[in-house]
Amino acid sequence: MSVPEGSLNKRTTNFQADIAESGLTPMRYLQGVMCDEKADPDRRDRAAIAMMPYLVPRLAVVDVNAKVKTEDTSQLNDEERRAKARAMILEAFAERPQPAIEGRFKVIAGGNVAAADEPQSVGQGMGRGKTSDANPLEESEE
């Protein structure tokens, strides 16, 4: 009679049952060693290193295909190079308009329920009151 590949034998089954009964898993054991202030610092460090792959994900490899625009500036004088660099910096840090997203938004609590069924842009009707040009610190004449 052949045993199916990958099936557990009696020893492994008994071992797993003993672990389940005791409630002590290898991770809990290592955590206990790591948190035991009376244990040797080197032993605590090794326990932390052994636990790390299970607690902290590894950084993923990111493939970057960057398109770089190069330009020959060897023919420019220093002032022209500086002006070109300033223009490129200003362009890189320029404010870009945010795209408006149209849709229907539900009011969760309070607000104008009738207006909630009308399509609105993101940022409108989301707790922002009407603004006025009046200075709120000045006393109003009412």
Q: Any idea what the radius of gyration is?
A: 33 Å
* Approximate helicity band: 40-55%
Order of SSEs, N→C?
HHHHEHE
Give the biggest sheet.
Answer: 2 strands, antiparallel
Strand content bin: under 5%
Keywords:
about 140 residues, mainly alpha, two-stranded antiparallel ribbon, about 5% strand
What would you say this structure looks like, in words?
With 142 residues, this protein is mostly helical. The protein has a domain at 13-55. The protein has five helices and two strands. It has a two-stranded antiparallel sheet with strand order 1-2. Helix 2 (26-35) crosses helix 3 (41-55). The protein starts with 9 loop residues before the first helix and ends in a 21-residue tail after the last strand.
What is the gist of this entry?
With 142 residues, this protein is an all-alpha fold.
Question: What topology emerges from the helices and strands here?
Answer:
Blueprint (H helix, E strand, L loop, with lengths): L9 H13 L3 H10 L5 H15 L22 H15 L9 E2 L9 H4 L3 E2 L21
Antiparallel strand pairs: 1-2
